[in-house]
Specification:
3 domains; eight-stranded mixed sheet; 12 helices; binds S-adenosylmethionine; disordered N terminus; 435 residues; Rossmann fold; alpha+beta; five-stranded antiparallel sheet
């Protein structure tokens, strides 16, 4: 009864606030909380850290609301999947997620207004909110400019959706990650700017404990295209246990072939995991495969029949992962279609797509799916594979992605094979043969 009365008083007289706060030591997380005294709450957080100059809490967002308890509970419910632990109001953070939280709060019926703090702590707050990356206003560009520039960028700026990463990575045994150092070398984990944060980083940050990772390293590429006029400033983000560091080494571009990235790859990596830029895939594969490290990466679905990559499949240095990827997000966060596939050198257990291979005697393959080209080479389609044919025959990328090379067949030519039918060039394939 007493409690209800108190609640009523609180509702009628006291202003109530929702805040998002972050510690400078853990930039991949934030806390979303409720209070009736914003200044006091921030002071409490900073007292907790013993006034350490290196670990300071700052507000990222504050607003007045009609009922902070209800609002807090609804945020908890809406974003339960982004909470570090069920018992705490700690949420994973990157600029995309932050936008999501703020949008949810601002469009909620209990939202009153955003609060911009001017407090005695001004000095401290001003110092704290000084971003490493200048704001759009500071850089003299508008949101519209950013979007216009973004439109000019090709599929190198296609971002992987979180669910696609989760779908693929959940298929591998957890033990492959145990005590491992994961390197995401084309991934912005906690960029201060919009649209650049990577779901790869978020996946590993979120699952760091569950996967029992030893270390996560993610790098930010400063870019050929300086999308945000922020200058060329590559950075390295490291997470080891609870400790997180972000460094801007002098002269570091963040490119996967920058000397520092190569050093990390060589000396501080067990598994590479990313979606590298499509246009630089040839160089990326060369470097990654040469490193001898384990990898799990996304590339074009046609790689098994593309000359630059065929030798890797032929030499059994790479094989398809479990899933293809049909959609990515562009820098405007719109869904775009593109044909990607996971590739790896980590063992695949009982590949589910074996079932798409129809390995049967040649005579049983329907006539429309077996043809002989102008040079009398057999060309098969629709997943049909002859199990009694001794000579080389041509297949598309699909059977390779479905695991044909794990079923007693090998690629016998280092490059593409183009069948000609009645003098007409058909699309490229690879030549395989039963071993
Ligand atoms: C296809 S996007 C994928 C981004 C992110 N890995 C993901 O999956 O969402 C490729 C990313 O690599 C970045 N990039 C381009 N060239 C790079 C390079 N030489 N080294 C590292 N990253 C590069 C692009 O800016 C872009 O953010």
């Amino acid at each position: 009864m007493g409690k209800i009365k108190q609640g009523k008083i609180l509702e009628s007289k006291t202003k109530q606030y929702i805040y998002i706060v972050q510690s400078s030591h853990e930039t991949t997380k934030c806390k979303i909380g409720a209070t009736i005294d914003l200044k006091r709450r921030l002071k409490d957080y900073n007292n907790m850290t013993g006034k350490s100059k290196e670990n300071i809490y700052r507000y990222l967002f504050n607003c007045e609301v009609k009922d902070m308890t209800q609002m807090e509970n609804e945020i908890k419910k809406e974003y339960s999947y982004l909470r570090e632990e069920k018992s705490k109001e700690i949420y994973f953070y990157n600029s995309d997620l932050f936008d999501k939280f703020v949008q949810f709060i601002k469009s909620h019926k209990l939202f009153v207004k955003e609060i911009f703090l001017k407090t005695d702590d001004k000095k401290q707050i001003v110092k704290l909110i000084k971003k490493t990356t200048p704001s759009l206003i500071e850089r003299g560009i508008s949101q519209k400019d950013v979007l216009q520039k973004a439109q000019k960028i090709d599929n190198d700026e296609f971002y992987t959706r979180y669910e696609d990463i989760e779908k693929e990575l959940s298929k591998y045994e957890k033990k492959i990650w145990k005590n491992k150092r994961v390197f995401c070398n084309c991934d912005d984990p906690v960029d201060n700017d919009e649209r650049r944060t990577s779901a790869f980083s978020l996946y590993f940050i979120k699952n760091f404990k569950t996967l029992r990772l030893k270390k996560l390293i993610c790098t930010h590429y400063s870019g050929d295209v300086d999308l945000f006029n922020q200058g060329t400033k590559g950075y390295v983000f490291r997470k080891e246990g609870y400790k997180e560091f972000k460094e801007y080494p002098e002269g570091y571009s963040g490119s996967f072939d920058d000397p520092l990235s190569l050093k990390i790859l060589k000396e501080d990596t067990d598994i590479v995991c990313t979606n590298p830029p499509f246009s630089k895939a040839t160089d990326y594969w060369k470097i990654t495969l040469k490193s001898g490290k384990k990898f799990l990466i996304i590339s074009n679905i046609t790689n098994p029949i593309t000359p630059a990559f065929i030798p890797y499949f032929k030499n059994n240095q790479v094989w398809a992962g479990y899933n293809r990827i049909d959609y990515f997000l562009n820098p405007k966060k719109e869904l775009v279609e593109a044909a990607g596939h996971w590739y790896t050198n980590i063992p695949i257990k009982n590949r589910p797509k074996y079932k798409n291979l129809k390995i049967i005697p040649l005579k049983d393959i329907p006539i429309e799916y077996k043809k002989y080209d102008d040079s009398k080479c057999l060309v098969v389609d629709k997943g049909y594979i002859p199990n009694d044919y001794k000579k080389p025959f041509a297949v598309s990328a699909r059977p390779i992605l479905n695991g044909l090379l794990e079923k007693g067949y090998k690629i016998i030519l280092d490059t593409q094979y183009f069948p000609y039918e009645k003098g007409k060039k058909k699309f490229g394939r690879v030549l395989v043969q039963k071993t």
